Amino acid sequence: MKQIVVRSACVAVSCAALWVTAAGQQLPPSDAPAGRAPGISAEAATTAKYVIGVGDVLTVTFWRDQRMSGDVLVRPDGKISVLLLNDVQAAGHTPEQLAASLSLAAAKYITESDVTVNVKEVHSRRVFIVGDVVTPGAVPLTGDMNVLQLIAVAGGLREYADKKHIVLLRTENGRERRLNFNYDEVLKGKNLKQNILLQPGDTVMVR
User: For the chain, which domains are there?
Assistant: First the structure.
């Protein structure tokens, strides 16, 4: 039976080896085909929960044809270019789904078209934190992350930051929403509903 090996992105989390067959069966590393490095899967971007987006950089490996292998950029139209296969839709698919699609398309050109898809760089899913934090900037959003966790990833608040009036900016249906976040309240276990899960494109402002 053909095996489609899927590798997901590992960003700031520990990774465990995992193989996924075309039938969806998970194999421990000891059962992985000899001579191949086991695929890796992060809990935050699990075997297949991560959805590829525009701007992501993928490493596509065809085990039987290295000419078709290499790093590819997901273009603004959501597609990637692969030798012989031309343009293939990538955005909106998980690494597992894309690997299966590539394997099927390549079957007419090469035998045993085992394919791995690894998310090398995540650019399509980012959140931003600006203002009085230790390390402001963009942070890859590879899994669930709330406002408090984003502040922690940014190194925490600076000494004179306004902890009670942090603002989350979110664009929905073309309109900007401003959501308040009180750092002190959340640390004390109060009004925890304000510590919401972030969405790609969110910006947290600390004054």
Answer: 5-121 (3.30.1950.10), 126-206 (3.10.560.10)
